[in-house]
Amino acid sequence: MSTDVRYGGVPALGARALVLAVGAVQVAAFLVADALGRPTLYVAFAVASAACLGALADRGPFGIVAACLSGALLVALVYPLVTLVTVASPESVLAALARPDVRRTLYLSVYAPLLATLLACVLGVPLALLLRRGFPGRPLVESLVDLPLVVPHSVAGLAVLLAFGEGGAFPTLPVLGAVPGLVLALAFVSAPYAVDGAREGFETVDRDAERAARSLGASRFETFRRVTAPLAVRGVLSGAILSWARAVSEYGAVAVVAYNVSVFYPPAGERVQAMFGSVFVVRELDVNFDAAVAVAVCLLAVCVVVFLAVRALTRDAGRWA
Amino acid sequence: MLRFDVRAAFRDDATTFEVAADLTVRDGETLCLLGPSGSGKTLLLELLAGFHDHDGSIELDGRSLDDAPPEERDLSLVFQNYALFSHLSVRENVAFGATYHEDARDPDALLARLGVADLATRSPETLSGGEKQRVALARALCVRPDAFLLDEPLSALDAPTRERLRDDLVDVLADETAVYVTHDRTTARAVADRVAVLRGGRVAQVGPTEAVFERPATRFVAAFTGATVVESTDLPAGLDAPTGTLAVRPEHVRVGVDTGVPARVTRAVREDAAHRVTLAVGDAELVAYAPTDPPTETTVAVPPGRWHVLPRGGRDADA
User: Fold this and answer.
1) Which domain holds residue A29?
2) Residues 189-208 of A with CB under 8 A from B
3) Å from B163 to nearest chain A CA?
4) Which residues of B40-71 are buried (b: 16+ CB within 10 A; e: fewer)?
5) Which residues of chain B have a CB within 8 Å of the CB of A226?
6) Range B2-222 has CATH code 3.40.1000.70
7) In the A/B pair of chains, how many CB contacts fall below 8 A?
8) Are A126 and A238 in the same domain?
């Protein structure tokens, strides 16, 4: 959907053209400031250009102030990530990627969050369905599910260690410095995102559509399979992505439970010691700054690629049934 | 034939709402459940469809539905908000139930019958309200249900679309057994063979449509079906009204006739083809439809036999 926006005396541009133009100007300004070695110039330029766009949109003083503040926030969000990418030279990234411990770290940083997300979804999607249907005590259960969001993550790690570690609920399960422990810790901090995303997905499903399906002859299960699930899949998937991304970025809980992890590494065909990405980055900062930056860039790239891929897949997720 | 004699209680934190109804819908008949918001008509419909627990019995063509889940009741639902499956195309929507019914009708033929054949491959989200409801009707028809349950199917539509679809709906439901929920007396009068007026979860009156509209059993039914209620003692003697509490429909009140008694117009509102006129007659107020905007001082008459004496003890809230 493209809407024409008229900016004051500026000729009307299509919305897409406007976005592209603003983006191109920002990239050019960033490159110039970077070449001059004066990053402050770019930050000032970005906020000032936001103010100009606000003024041209002709929404009064509040429009200008809101545009300024929004511009500042966007700069604060995007500028550090762009800087990270520009600081890392391609050579240092390639050099880092050649290191076996870096590759193991990247493997572990994708694999363990995947398992955690799978666990969170297998247990969390049915819960989301129950929460949507409603039951006595639902508010309490909702609070319990969201509890990990407010618990400091190192505390969460300690709690997982005490609950499921040696002498805990699962005596035979390796937790400290092991993949199961790492997955449990990651699932603990990321499950709320999976549950909340799935619940939002289910809540968008029209109850009358489900009733219509039942009256047309579909059993409870068939209605779920043919109506509820296809309509909710977008919410479930976006919850899963958020949950996965949250798990990838986890540091505190991992540092407590699984600083060094013993993991089966397929390329080597054997068990190896590996470190989770965020832990590796923090440790490597003291040892080899370039390697830390390179690993950080790789992690960022993996996250962005997965994020964009799943976003593209969910765009017409409704047709997946 | 759909027979039900059901009772159910619906509770939320503070209140309990009870629904109780004993009604019969004959084969090929459309029964309207007519009532204001909160009268329990939608709950009753959902209960018939199998979405609520209840006491009593529901029988469809001699078969008890009491323990049947919704999918085994052979009742097709049509909703106010269409409730189409937004992830499926129009044709897939209509054919949804065919998976579960060997004798299902051809979806394309149904779409053609309802005048929306050209929309078959579209997504429901791109349709207008009237088109959506036609698709929803086709979907309900596809499975050859034993009866239809319709919940305000026209209420979300604009007036021209509503009138066109209502006329088509009358044709579609002509030979079908249907329960039709509405709060709109005009729709009820147009589509119903019989009407049950609901109030507070109970049936206030049930009968053939014209009987209910012409001879309401209570003040509430009279008012809700559009009749004017007056006390005979408030009317001038010249009107020859019977004694008691009277109901008279606006369409029977004649304005500006030579034989009438004097009346004063207190309000005249233009409605489509006529003027809806409020008249002060004696100490009473009558409503009439006049073809032209009448002068302030006019006359009014009601033909003999058009007055309906409300039954004594025709109190409201009695069933």
Assistant:
1) 4-87
2) 206, 208
3) 24
4) bbbbbbbbbbbbeebeeebebeeeebeeeebb
5) 85, 96
6) no
7) 77
8) yes
Whether A81 and A98 share a structural domain: no
Residues 6+ apart with CB under 8 A from A43: A75, A79
CA proximity to B286, closest of B262, B250, B260, B259: B250
CA separation for the pair A207, A213 (Å, rounded): 10
Q: Tell whether A137 is within 8 A of chain B (Cβ).
A: no
Residues of B in contact with A224 (CB under 8 A): none
**pLDDT of A35-86, one tens digit each?**
888 888 898 999 999 998 888 888 888 989 999 999 999 999 988 888 888 8
| Domain finish residue from A67, A87, A107 | A87
Two structure tokens written together for B19? 């629904």
Of A40, A60, A87, the last residue of a domain is A87
For chain B, domain boundaries: 2-222, 227-302
In 3-state terms, what secondary structure has residue B93?
helix
**Closest chain B residue to the Cα of A206, Cα to Cα:** B83
Topology of domain B227-302 in CATH is OB fold (Dihydrolipoamide Acetyltransferase, E2P) (2.40.50)
Phi, psi (rounded to 5 degrees) for A137 = 85, 10
A228 and A100 assigned to the same domain:
yes
Query: B81-108, pLDDT tens digit by residue?
Result: 999 999 999 999 999 999 999 999 999 9
Q: Does A318 reach chain B within 8 Å, measured CB to CB?
A: yes
B-chain residue closest to A318, CA distance: B87
Cβ distance A211 to B71 less than 8 Å, yes or no, reads: no
- B74: distance to nearest CA of chain A, Å? 7
- The total domain count for chain A is 2
The interface pTM score, or ipTM, of the predicted complex is: 0.89
